[in-house]
Here is the input.
Amino acid sequence: MSTHFDVVVIGGGPGGYIAAIRAAQLGFSVACVELEKLLGGTCLRVGCIPSKAMLESSEHFEFASGHAKDHGVVIGEVGLDLGAMMKRKDRVVKTMAGGIDGLFKKNGVTRLLGKGRLDGRDDQGQVRVVVDGADGESVVTARNVILATGSEVASLPGLQLDGDRIGGSTEALSWPEVPKRLCVIGAGVIGLELGSVWRRLGSEVTVLEYADAPLPGMDGEIRKTAAKIFKKQGMKLQFGVKVQGASLDGDEVVVTAEGKDPMRFDRVLVAIGRRPYSAGLGLQTLGIETDARGRVPTDAHLATSAQGVYAIGDLIAGPMLAHKAEEEGVAVAEYLSTGYGHVDYDLIPGVVYTDPEIASVGKTQEELEAAGVAFRAGSFPFVANGRARGMGSTDGFVKVLADAETDRVLGVHMIGPRVGELVAEAAMAMAFAASAEDISRICHAHPTLSEVTKEAALASLGRALNI
Ligand code: NAI
Here is the structure.
């Protein structure tokens, strides 16, 4: 096997494996170093993909146990086989990970199994990468290295994750039984998604959130609506609660928060954010320093301070999202080949896969107000949409924010059925600098959920038709 490559990618998550494939497509010799047997990183192994499998399964369970009868579907006694649900999830993950192995083979990407770290330069100035694998250490060299090691669960000083009862998202995707009383710390994306999974499966879920509404950073109206809907579903959401710690006491976990009596639960899911994973990456061997939040600083071309070393994804600034990492992986590979590569950070959609789903792209109303931008807002509710009525999923709305003068769409925010798919239309429209009027004049099939986006665009122009 060759020990020198044009590009070595450290990390085989969505950022890293996509960077490796794109670089190979562009004609580079490429190796990807990944510690885990399964490629795909946090997203595929213990994040996006298994959580979506569990969200889907738990939604079916909840539908069978309740909403089915609203549709006139009579089901006998509904039971839960958690083991089978977990096995299905594991199969989904394994199949997807195998798919990436196949893509590497097809594109001629060399897979190196082990923990990769930078190790200075050789005599020719090539970057040395040590691969610490099962059979010991080996060294490869590269003209360019792309760091894509992702992130790990963040915790609190008073909170020791025990890998079981007090766990992060990884543990919460594999619990062997449904916890009776589950405490979720943080009403962010993970808290709401995995909190929803376990609530649907029968847990009494208490979510403790420091902010005054869920999903800090998202559009204010969406956050308020989300809080109402999740409360109605039975999630116990408590806001303005600053959790300080959690510790084991026999079979229980005691959670402490500022100004509150200790609270007792069976399990705790810590979902207060993630931090870049750069430990043991050998950054110092090339003089790369991290910022105060542990992120690797990069320039507009995603280059670090070390010549030929780039960084992407959760390791650097910006939203910790798989698709943002992918775009950056493609941008670096293309930059290496052509001298240009670009990510439009204004148009990275965010999706929360709860029921209803929540999705957004572009600026929030609060961001526009803070920046002093004059805008028009238009909203349209799913309750006035025929398809949503037929589905029996009428919670939520779509909100379009457009520049008051030019009518250019600046942000689209959604909560409602399947909005995780609807947001792609908004991102596409905005990428082509669409105005609200442009969206409103595009023929949307009837009856579809996408008509809500069209009607919200019309509403921003003061002329919604169906309300
Ligand atoms: P998050 O940043 O989304 O939410 C963390 C929440 O914890 C915030 O609401 C914050 O106010 C709260 N918090 C922080 N300290 C607290 C304390 N001491 N007491 C009470 N509340 C506290 O982080 P999360 O949910 O852990 O997700 C991690 C990352 O993974 C995020 O960047 C997220 O975007 C990403 N992710 C994305 C998904 C998606 O796109 N669907 C799914 C899952 C994760």
Notes: The longest strand covers residues 136-147. The pocket of NAI is lined by residues 156, 185-191, 193, 208-211, 216, 241-243, 271-274, 319-321, 351-353 (CB under 6 Å). The radius of gyration is 24 Å. The chain has 13 helices and 23 strands.
